[in-house]
């Protein structure tokens, strides 16, 4: 059962409680962007989880802090896009990512000045740049954020949002940077309570998750520009696996990256070409991020995609 | 193999790279507190992860945002303790927890006022209280924070820190709030590269992790006051599992809590007694946290523990 039918999955599993609210918000957001004649990109971000119990204490997770996705949002907005950001709960978010509580804790940047709390001079100028961008994105309604936790909820949201977004056809881009689980425990095999510690150890049997990129490309959003990601740890597999995904799902671009060098090198793999995008030591030292190059490149590809559709 | 020998585990597994640095910091911190004649508590917090590959893309995780641990630190400091906070990377930390990037994002609280960035009046008074406590904790060197990601690194740090802390004997408390994995994949069975998606699904076989609470109580820190936690989802199991842990490991207190009510009710289980600590709706509405009651109670128990040891 490599490709489980879409209907089957969405019937067998319970939708997230707020699915209708998400649907409503997405439609409102999209209508606003249509009026402004903006392009819209869906950015997915962070790892997805696979619960091992119904009352979940344990789960299988994917490594992802959400850096790629959250950084990319900022550059998409700079390029004139409106963004729907579908992100894993507690993973990094655009703008605030520069001040996560584990790094650059903002409390360290604050001084008490009589009755006021002010940002220390040392941090002031960088924060002002971030804050101005953030306030602009909010004021101009350029960003809609929706969070998920489990891979199941991710699929429900992805399905719903993609179908809504597909109404703007070529003007929508799908930038699927979330690290989606490959395996899950189907509902009928899930235990109710916390699995107890026991000397015998634990044997888990997980099924492959449905490959929803296939219906996304062919049915949910057939006219959009679709970009997926491939993360590997074995360099011998990267390009071949990326090309395989492109052949299998029939979308436009796979961005391949290695776990250890993902902030320095990515590969753009398209049907006819392969291109490496790289950061120099100098660029990295200056705090430049590879996502700025990725998004500039995609903007051009999207221009072409829209242009082609007119012929 | 329920209890794997301590030496065996710490020989078979590779220590975290910075273990010597952590050792040095802990000793310096402890020496400073000894001079100030302070009590010291080790607070562990957050979930631990079990990697499924050496070059880790996937892992098994435990549900824990680190709320219990990070909140408790603030109340311990209010009670005069110095705290070593051993926490899961990216989980909540004391003080900054009030402004995580996913809730109460601090960027929403800032205004640009000419060249300054200031905290909006609406948020000013609450933040001032937090900020003053935070600055005091730093200025008086009351808090040492050490982060981990995998259960293996957690065990190495726990072992090292506990042994150092045990030199102050009864004046040390161990408040083990981290949600420690019960199962892991031993190094000899770990695959190197990312497990590939495949139609056949995935079978995982995990061993039980060594129960280090046993040597911690009997060998690493035999004179300290040791508090462990028991989280369950099945109410019929909670008290019996907590009492079982107390019998098995021989320490002083188990705090039992249910997944769904953990912010409202906890049970203190000791050798001779059982006591429920509860929050009223009124208290919860006023933003009071159950950890303030837990820590007040533990402070009294610690007073008695130290007093008894003098006889």
TrEMBL record, chains A, B:
Family annotation (Pfam families): DFP
Occurrences of domain DNA/pantothenate metabolism flavoprotein C-terminal (ranges): 163-264
Name by which UniProt lists this protein: DFP-domain-containing protein
Taxonomic superkingdom: Eukaryota
PANTHER family the UniProt entry points to: CORNICHON-RELATED (PTHR12290)
GO molecular function: phosphopantothenate--cysteine ligase activity
Signal peptide interval: none
Residues in coiled coil: none
Source lineage: Eukaryota, Fungi, Fungi incertae sedis, Chytridiomycota, Chytridiomycota incertae sedis
SUPFAM superfamilies, per database record: CoaB-like
A GO CC term attached to the entry: CoA-synthesizing protein complex
Family: Belongs to the PPC synthetase family.
Biological process terms in GO annotation: acetyl-CoA biosynthetic process from pantothenate; coenzyme A biosynthetic process
């Amino acid at each position: 059962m490599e490709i489980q039918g879409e209907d089957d999955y969405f019937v067998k599993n319970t939708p997230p409680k707020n699915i209708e609210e998400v649907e409503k918000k997405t439609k409102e957001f999209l209508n606003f962007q249509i009026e402004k004649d903006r392009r819209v990109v869906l950015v997915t971000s962070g790892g997805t989880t696979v619960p091992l119990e119904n009352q979940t204490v344990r789960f299988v997770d994917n490594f992802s802090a959400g850096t790629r996705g959250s950084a990319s949002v900022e550059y998409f907005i700079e390029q004139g896009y409106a963004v729907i950001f579908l992100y894993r709960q507690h993973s990094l978010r655009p703008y605030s990512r520069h001040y996560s509580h584990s790094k650059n804790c903002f409390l360290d940047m604050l001084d008490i000045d009589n009755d006021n709390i002010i940002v220390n001079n040392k941090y002031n100028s960088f924060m002002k740049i971030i804050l101005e961008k953030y306030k602009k994105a909010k004021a101009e309604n350029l960003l809609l954020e929706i969070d998920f936790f489990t891979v199941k909820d991710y699929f429900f949201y992805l399905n719903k949002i993609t179908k809504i977004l597909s109404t703007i056809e070529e003007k929508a881009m799908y930038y699927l940077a979330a690290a989606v689980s490959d395996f899950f425990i189907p509902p009928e095999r899930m235990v109710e309570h916390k699995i107890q510690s026991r000397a015998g150890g634990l044997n888990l049997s997980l099924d492959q998750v449905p490959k929803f990129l296939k219906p996304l490309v062919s049915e949910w959003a057939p006219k959009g520009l679709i970009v997926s990601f491939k993360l590997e740890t074995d360099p011998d597999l990267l390009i071949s696996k990326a090309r395989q995904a492109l052949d299998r799902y029939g979308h436009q671009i796979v961005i391949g990256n290695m776990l250890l060098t993902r902030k320095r090198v990515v590969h753009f793999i398209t049907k006819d070409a392969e291109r490496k995008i790289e950061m120099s030591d100098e660029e990295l030292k200056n705090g430049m991020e590879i996502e700025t190059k990725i998004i500039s490149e995609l903007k051009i590809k999207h221009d072409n995609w829209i242009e082609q559709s007119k012929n």
